[in-house]
Amino acid sequence: MSVLIDSLLAILAIYLALQCLLAQRLIQTVFIFFAFGLALALTWVRLGAIDVAITEAAIAAGFMGVLFLDALRDFSPAVSKKQQNLEAVRNPLPGNDTKRPILPRLALGLGLVLFLLISLEAVWNTPEGKGLTVVTGVMLPDSGVEHPVTAVLLNFRAYDTWLEIGVILMGLLAIFAAGGKEVYRKSGMTAEDPVLRQVILFFTPILFLFGAFLLYFGKSGPGGAFPAGVLWGAIGILLHLGGRPVLTVIPRWLLYLILTIGPGFFILLGFLLMTTGSTLFEYPPAYAGILILIVETMAAISIAAALTAIFTNLNQMSEEPDKIESNN
Amino acid sequence: MDGVFIFVIVFLLLNIVLGLFRVWRGPTVADRLLTTQLFGTTGMAVLLVLAGYLQELTLLNVAITFNVLAILLVISLFKVWKKKKGETP
To answer: Which of chain B's residues have a Cβ under 8 Å away from the Cβ of A227?
Structure first.
């Protein structure tokens, strides 16, 4: 009977992905993307990957949604005009207005066929046995945590996780390079709206507490540094939207310290452990649990600061287009 | 009992499909804003029912993550909407 749910979810996810690509207006694309994120998160749950579902819910539905909405404002011609009836303004996607070129369609079709072939191959050749699950299960007591996914992410394959945090910082660096650093000092909007102020007062502690809970819960179940970092980053975004730009009131060096403390502590710990004769990121089993918790906390702080900074800079770049152009 | 769970989940998923109609038609940003809230709430309901169906209580984490981040979308959208209407420069 659960085949009914699974097939409905599969059809929904693929349909939404297609509609997201083929929608005529940008605003439809953005909103269909939300629905797609939801369908994808539910699909991950049905596949048993609850860690991925949490990350999908936090990053795709939460953070990416906010970024897309911010971008939507920039692409809308209604921003500069006195435009009351917004929906009268159409935002046709490039190449969608006159005649559809044949090459993108061909590429899309070819990609779909290749994807189908790869999926078929994956379904046909399911690996024998349980793969690396058994090895992870055997090594789990030495990892310091009880949840296999956290053990793999923060202990067995810690180097990959370290690089992943670096990817977020690289994104922020690109935004700094594109001129975001100059407008960074501008304060945000003012919060004269009492409802907005109450919402911020109400949600900031909840976001912080739940982020901290996810961080700690990662030891024994789905959770961990990335969703926690997004939830804490959401506090920064919320405060920025409410006119309290938290990253602009602290000194620049403190911001850089917060941004780099996660990956910095992570790699320093790895090298320090090398001096005791073990390999990079090989935690001694006795202290592995507490070390992983500290590393995760630092990483979550850095991720939160980086996501906040990414949003803040993009948001303020879009508010001051003249200034960006003069910088170039 | 499993039949009830599956029926409820399928019903909620069909609700999401119906909500897509509003995304498609609009006509204003506010209608679409409410649709995201429908998606968030319905998705949370699906997750809660799934948690009961699969006996997997960690799904509640996913549900709360969706829920607390939904407010971010509302505020962000509210700002976009306000900007587009030209109320603030």
So the answer is: 65
- State pLDDT tens for residues A303-312: 999 988 888 8
Q: Do A41 and B66 lie within an 8 Å CB cutoff?
A: yes
Q: Does ipTM surpass 0.90 in this model?
A: no
Domain boundaries, chain B: 2-85
B50 vs A134 pLDDT, higher one = B50
Alpha-carbon distance A30 to nearest alpha carbon in chain B (angstroms): 10
With a CB-CB cutoff of 8 Å, which residues 31-70 of chain B face chain A? 32, 35-36, 39-40, 43, 46-47, 50, 53, 56, 58-59, 61-62, 64-66, 68-69
How far B1 CA sits from the closest chain A CA (Å)?
12
Question: In 3D, which of A253, A281, A283, A277 has the Cα closest to residue A268?
Answer: A281
For residue A326, the Cα-to-chain-centroid distance in whole angstroms is 31
Cβ separation B65–A196 shorter than 8 A: no
Q: What is the DSSP string of B27-80?
A: -SHHHHHHHHHHHHHHHHHHHHHHHHHHT-TTHHHHHHHHHHHHHHHHHHHHHH
Instruction: Assign B74 a pLDDT band (cuts: 50, 70, 90).
Output: confident
**Interior/surface letters A36-66, b for 16+ CB within 10 angstroms, e for the rest:** bbbbbbbbbbbeeebbbbbbbbbbbbbbbbb
pLDDT of amino acid B43: 87
d(CA A170, CA A315): 18
Q: Find the residue in A nearest to B66 (Cα).
A: A57
Which band of pLDDT confidence, cut at 50, 70 and 90, is reported for residue A1? low
A76: chain B residues, CB-CB within 8 Å: 84
* In chain A, where the domains are located: 136-328
Q: What is the C-alpha separation between B72 and B70, in angstroms, rounded?
A: 5
Tens-place pLDDT, residues A6-15: 888 889 888 8
Residue numbers in A near B17 (CB within 8 A): 12
